[in-house]
Amino acid sequence: MSWRPQYRSSKFRNVYGKAASREHCFDGVPITKNVHDNHFCAVNARFLAIVTESAGGGSFLVIPLEQTGRIEPNYPKVCGHQGNVLDIKWNPFIENIIASCSEDTSVRIWEIPEGGLKRNMTEAVLELYGHSRRVGIVEWHPTTNNILLSAGYDYKILIWNLDIGEPVKMIDCHKDVILCLSFNSDGSLLATTCKDKKLRVVEPRSGRVLQEASCKNHRVNRVVFLGSTKRLLTTGVSRWNTRQIALWDQEDLSMPLIEEEIDGLSGLLFPFYDADTHMLYLAGKGDGNIRYYEISSEKPYLTYLMEFRSPAPQKGLGVMPKHGLDVSACEVFRFYKLITLKGLIEPISMIVPRRSETYQEDIYPMTPGTEPALTPDEWLSGVNRDPILMSLKEGYKRNSKVVFKAPVREKKSVVVNGIDLLENVPPRTENELLRMFFRQQDEIRRLKEELAQRDIRIRQLQLELKNFRNSPKNN
């Protein structure tokens, strides 16, 4: 029997990336230079939000998608935070509601007016205080309206019920800074990665850790649930300091199913998973390329497809929801790439090449829509429900009926599980202590320089006074 190479048929093996022309990009955006490992970008079918560089607090831009081209330097901003903004996320069910978190320890909910901002917005519709350190991550629940998660540098995850504007649950199983959060498709499980080199699968309502992996050979940075396949994918670094991805069974984290080394670069790898096409996209921070793979339920599980290449390095990437894609062009995914050096936001479309102009039902199955499947009280009581699906065949034109109403409440102590979160401050990490030490050293150096300048000025004045007294006119 003659040997034949194994051939795997796939409708996505010829997917290619297409960068938008310059007139369809967003130019002149002062993208933040913060080194925090987040995307600093969020996008939905109506607006693009980008965290910007600003002095005296944190701010971000909100631009209507049709307003492409050069952005004016005095374009209105959302600028209510007192510290740098570290993460922003759009509400999946209400398209003009966005959550932000900051170094000022707060999480804020903003309501963007129709047509975008006309002037600077400083007042949030809801301010949430519960963390004792800066807040690095916010994440909306995928099926329940008004449930928001936030993870802070106090090693805690708070679950907020925005109907009442209070934290209703606290997950405090982490021993170090939380790096990433990911919900499964119905929001019943939460996967987390942590700086203590552990991968955890948590039941969010009880805070109970269901599975835990101590990743010594594969130091995890990012994690994503692979839809309803009961699999997890993590990106991280191998023991040889090469970038690596690993596939896990969510019910058994004792060993990864596969580990695959990507390259020897140092930038963080961001994973993006499309449950409709079973495609995985890998984009490295500081890279110009985006690799994409196809995930299958059988070995080898991961099949390399192709790579989109660009000379411009990316700081972060925003992802358009499915109902915002161009179905007529067979677009299956769209990135918004942040190019800091040029102040440019560049859309990149991932396209399946098809000759027919009719609706391609095989690449556009029913997909999660903009209607919540549960209320906060239902989810908190233990109910799980799959997302409400919609078809993209007729195009997306239906507006969501969900409206956000901010609760009226007074500022007070935040008590969850019998603990006042604002009083229970964890010990500082070694990195935080080092940063404080260097800041104090810089301040001491600055004060010494000021004192030296004053001494020089005093000597100059004394010399001038002496010369004045000894001058012939005064004698």
UniProtKB/TrEMBL annotation:
The question of whether Iron-sulfur is a record keyword is answered with no
Q: Give me the WD repeat coordinates as residue ranges.
A: 78-120, 128-170, 171-212
Enumerate the spans annotated as DUF1899 domain.
5-69
**Which family is annotated?**
Belongs to the WD repeat coronin family.
Q: Which keywords label this protein?
A: Actin-binding, Coiled coil, Repeat, WD repeat
Q: Which InterPro entries match?
A: Coronin, DUF1899, WD40/YVTN_repeat-like_dom_sf, WD40_repeat_CS, WD40_repeat_dom_sf, WD40_rpt
Full protein name: Coronin
Signal peptide positions (record): none
State the species of origin: Grantiella picta
Any one GO MF annotation of this record: actin filament binding
